[in-house]
Design goal:
553 residues, 6-stranded antiparallel β-sheet, 15 strands, elongated
Length: 553
């Protein structure tokens, strides 16, 4: 709900701070006191047009700040978070109007755009009165309001889900058909790539093994010379190292029989002899395997060159090339079955269109029934609001093609006077009539999607016993939502949960608007002024007390 409003240098308002409460907030005051300027300020918060004419004479800029309490409004908090605005249940919005009509917008302390301000705040406040930025004038809202009243919102959501699925399938089919020629070219390319990789018969780790073989073959003479020479020196030639070592071991072993301290030395030498003997035999076998094979070397070079060409095309390693082939084969499988895919999509579209037709028929029937009940209820409520001859109807415009909301659009039609055909609200309803229409609608469908409703002189043209009925209806709406109402009727003001008096004062030669919270006898005095005008008598005061007491019951 709207908790606080601070207005600075706007029209005749110098600086004004107002705190609002839950329930019904009534604003009263003499004509020209500045009540409409407060509505203008709220309209700026809603993203309305900012004009330099709004800036108080002599001031550099005008500003409006609003603090909203969003406690328990999970959907709104989630929407704000989606827009990148974090708040802990409290949201500060500020709009500054500079000369030339340029505006600066701050949401939650951060700089923002007017369009974002409008998008967010239209979910926080609705104004019903003399302003043109209100939901009843937006034809696209009429069907949504009717669906809410008719209980058709779950059916509408189901229809919208099926519609999105159908549209997605149609787009997929269009893309498939538009891309058939490209698909044929793609099919040829992918087939060539898959065959080229398959014919190479690559194996993971193959490139590394070939590189090692190439290195050995390229240096075969050096490897053979080194291994054979080492074997000859160790074991195979004359005066070998192992022969000399055997003599040394025998000498040390003989000495060890004299001094046992040399026994470990003998064992160590014998172990070394065994290791050298194994190494020499390994060298002999290695030398026997090493050969110079130019043909094999050329074969390996060709194979590595072929792998290198594939790597330039398809991946940095054999593993990446094989993964690319897997993806190509998968796409080939899809492209090769275009006809099957097309048939499947066409069958799915036909099924979804049949489901849309069935759901759409139910939705239309529900709406027609709801429109009849809404007509009866609205005309009854409007009659109670001193519009006894008002006609309220819903016009439907059918469509052969489905939209996300169904097969029809809806528009509310209204005629306030007998003998006049009902016409669209935007063309015929005045501000006061529009306020009463919304008040009547709220009696029939008291939803609480928007936390704060503002009714600007909803009681225009109403008098007598009907006045108290308007107050009762506003009070009823205020049980679910915060209501701000500007009124000139004491019978309506008597129902206030919080009564605010707007008055114009002159100080230091300048006019300024102020707001006073009325309680007790101050409230009685204001209701009495509304009853009798400038001359307030004790009898008028007593009448005012009775009105307030009656409203509390």
């Amino acid at each position: 709900m709207l908790r606080e409003l601070q207005i600075t240098n706007l029209a005749i308002i110098d600086k004004l701070h107002v705190e609002f409460s839950p329930g019904l907030n009534i604003l009263t005051g003499e004509t020209g006191a500045g009540k409409s300027i407060i509505i203008d300020a709220v309209n700026l918060i809603l993203g309305g047009r900012g004009s330099a004419d709004l800036i108080r004479s002599g001031a550099k800029e005008a500003s409006v700040e609003a603090v909203f309490d969003l406690s328990g409004r999970g959907a709104l908090l989630e929407a704000l978070a989606t827009a990148g605005i974090e708040c802990d249940g409290e949201l500060l919005v500020r709009r500054v109007v500079a000369p030339g009509g340029k505006s600066r917008v701050f949401i939650g302390g951060g700089l923002a755009t007017t369009s974002l301000l409008s998008e967010i705040c239209r979910n926080l406040i609705n104004i019903y009165g003399q302003h043109d930025a209100q939901s009843l004038l937006k034809t696209e809202q009429h069907l949504l309001l009717l669906d809410g009243y008719s209980g058709a919102l779950p059916l509408r959501a189901e229809f919208a889900a099926r519609y999105e699925q159908c549209q997605a399938a149609k787009h997929e089919l269009q893309a498939l058909e538009a891309g058939e020629r490209e698909a044929a070219r793609r099919l040829d390319l992918l087939s060539f790539q898959s065959n080229e990789i398959a014919e190479a018969k690559l194996a993971p780790g193959e490139e590394e093994e070939l590189a090692e073989d190439r290195t050995r073959l390229a240096h075969s003479e050096k490897l053979m010379g080194a291994s054979q020479g080492a074997f000859d020196a160790l074991y195979g030639g004359e005066a070998t190292l192992l022969g000399s070592l055997a003599g040394i071991i025998a000498g040390v072993a003989d000495a060890g029989r004299i001094d046992p301290a040399l026994v470990p030395v003998t064992e160590a030498l014998e172990a070394a002899y065994a290791q050298l003997e194994d190494a020499s035999l390994t060298l002999r076998d290695y030398a026997a395997r090493v050969e110079s094979d130019p043909a094999r070397l050329e074969e390996i070079e060709d194979r590595l060159d072929a792998i290198g060409r594939l790597k330039k095309k398809y991946g940095a390693s054999i593993e990446e090339i094989l993964e690319y082939q897997r993806q190509v084969d998968q796409e080939l499988s899809v492209l090769s079955d275009i006809e099957g895919t097309r048939s499947g999509l066409q069958a799915r579209i036909a099924q979804l269109e049949q489901e849309l037709a069935t759901l759409g028929a139910k939705l239309s029937e529900t709406r027609q029934d709801g429109a009849e009940r809404l007509k009866e209820g609205m005309e009854r409520e409007l009659s109670e609001l001193a519009m006894k001859h008002a006609v309220f109807e819903t016009s439907f415009e059918k469509s052969a093609e489905a939209k996300s909301y169904g097969f029809e659009r809806a528009e509310f039609l209204f005629s306030p006077n007998p003998g006049e055909p009902p016409k669209p609200l935007a063309k015929i309803a005045s501000g006061g009539e529009l306020s009463r229409l919304m008040l009547a609608l709220k009696q029939l469908h008291p939803d609480s999607e928007v936390p704060t409703l503002i009714f600007d002189e909803v009681d225009t043209g109403i008098g007598g016993a009907t006045s108290a009925l308007v107050g009762e209806k506003l009070k009823r709406v205020a049980r679910e939502q915060q209501v701000l109402a500007i009124t000139h009727l004491p019978q309506v003001a008597a129902f206030a949960d919080q009564h605010l008096k707007v008055e114009k004062k002159v100080a230091d030669g300048r006019t300024a608007t102020g707001v006073e919270l009325l309680e007790g006898e101050g409230r009685v005095a204001e209701v009495a002024r509304m009853l009798s005008g400038a001359r307030v008598t004790e009898k008028t005061l007593e009448h005012a007390r009775e009105l307030i007491q009656e409203a509390v019951r």
